[in-house]
Amino acid sequence: MQLSTGAYVVNFGGQAIVLNLQQDRYVYLGPHLSTVAGKAIDKGLSDEERLAAVRELVSKGILDDDCDRRSYQFETDEPISLPRSTSWPSIRFGLGLGGQIHLTLKALRALYDVGYSLRTRPFIETVQYLRDQRRAGRKVKPKQSANDALDSFFAARPWFPTPPVCRLDASALCLHLWRSGHDASLVFGVRIEPFSAHCWAQGEEASLNEPHDQLRQYTPIMAI
């Protein structure tokens, strides 16, 4: 659920985790602050009551001190469902992509663009960049299948000299798909005990870059 324009929250029955994009960190909330966060997104309360809850979270350093002076959104996102299947690896992966080497080069470009953004921009700006790219991708007419785009990404990845990390790989795969005219969601999830955060590429209810059963230990907190 969206807590402010730059923060998201998920509740685990009396405990909560906040993803603060501006600070680029996850914050654990105990019972009291979890209740406060719940009030901040409760549409059954008045704007004044919700804003008072936001200001308490600001006073604790969980939200930024200028968040209530921004274009504040008391809204919640659509629920994000966990994947029920896995789309990759495809049956034909490793057999070659024929004359579609240009797709592999496009995949390398997506990896470079995301890697550069993560190195040089605050994380919240990278998130906005990816949101803009997804919107732009909806106007692209696909010339190849989604499977072609997936296979070309994984063919390209060994040639990109950076160790695997979910923020890079899942984001770049989504960017590659969007630029190829195929939609996908970049999903961020958290686990509370023991704490862990992860992100992955998802198409409807299918994981696109790792086994779906490994992802079901996470609770989605934000999607691009």
How are strands sequenced across the largest beta sheet?
A: 5-8-7-6-9
Overall 3D shape: elongated
Structural class: alpha+beta
Per DSSP, the total helix count is 7
Number of strand elements: 9
Low-confidence stretches: 69-76
What portion of the residues fall into strands of 2 or more residues? 15-25%
Cα(first) to Cα(last) distance is: 13 Å
Radius of gyration (Å) = 19 Å
Q: What attributes does this structure have?
A:
alpha+beta; four-stranded antiparallel β-sheet; 224 residues
Describe it:
About 4% of the residues have low confidence. Strand 6 and strand 7 form a beta hairpin. This protein is α+β, with helices and mostly antiparallel strands and 224 residues long. It contains 7 helices and 9 strands, in the order ββββααβααααβββαβ. The longest helix is centred in the middle third of the chain and has 20 residues.
